[in-house]
Amino acid sequence: MAETTLPASGTAGRFAGGVRSFQGHLGRDFAAVRPFGELEDPRRRILIQALAAGFFSSAGSAAAQIFGRAPSRLPAGQSIYRVSGDVTVNSQVATLQTRISPGDTVQTAPNGEIIFAVAEEAYLLRGGSHMVIEKPPSGLTTALRLVTGKLLSVFGKGRPTRLVTATSTIGIRGTGVYAETDPEQTYFCTCYGVTDVVANTDPASRDTVAAKHHDRPLYILAKGKEGARIRPAPFINHTDQELAIIEALVGRVPPFVFPMEDYNAPRREYP
Fold first, then answer.
1. What is the CATH number of domain 11-248?
2. Domain-wise residue ranges, the chain
3. Could you tell me which residue, 33 or 269, shows the higher pLDDT?
4. Under a CB-based contact definition with an 8 Å cutoff, are residues 157 and 141 in contact?
5. What DSSP string describes 27-85?
6. How far, in whole angstroms, is CA 207 from its chain's centroid?
7. I want to staple 79 with a disulfide (CB 3.0 to 4.6 A). Which of 50, 90, 100, 242 is the partner?
């Protein structure tokens, strides 16, 4: 498929300026935070826009032309909605016929991306990522480990979940979340719902976030002052359209409504 590059002066360019402005406001107290960088490749946004357009139109023609069908609840026995680039499940090349279950490991090369569901949870794993869907211990419906990379995920209500990254352990309750992690820090956004966040290296650094719409993204650091390794972060690298897509795979919709025009930041006009 031919790809189109958006000009730097467009949405991505405006957003990058917002991130730099946020960094400027951090000041010396936040010198340990290493921002994860600029907005994702804008070419991916075109695909997401087309896919979301198919979901929110009656015909779903845009999504059908690109991906074969608009996003909807996956048929029984199917785990993967879309896979592109180099992706493996348990070290085997992933296809649309690959089943994914608790206990499996999903990895994407830098050029890879996969959208899939397991039970009532759905995920978008970006390139250069390593994710383990652990067999849950007693009392947990889902246990995830994001070893490295970028993950957007949604979880059903009443299904307690634990997400472990390189620097954080996060309890999740009926939530949509986005995480990016490496050995030094984790970026984490509670898109909606409630999460309990703890820094792995400092149990005194903890926070509970109750969000309606990307209200309070966080950085969770591996190092820093005790009790202060969780710090505010900007909104980066995920969209409401993507949340709508993966919620559709498990028969749900996000708890907000948004316009179909290009959109890369949270609205603030909700009550």
1. 2.60.120.1440
2. 11-248
3. 33
4. no
5. -GGGTT-----SPPPHHHHHHHHHHHHHHHSSS-HHHHHHHSS---PPPTT--EEEEES
6. 19
7. 100
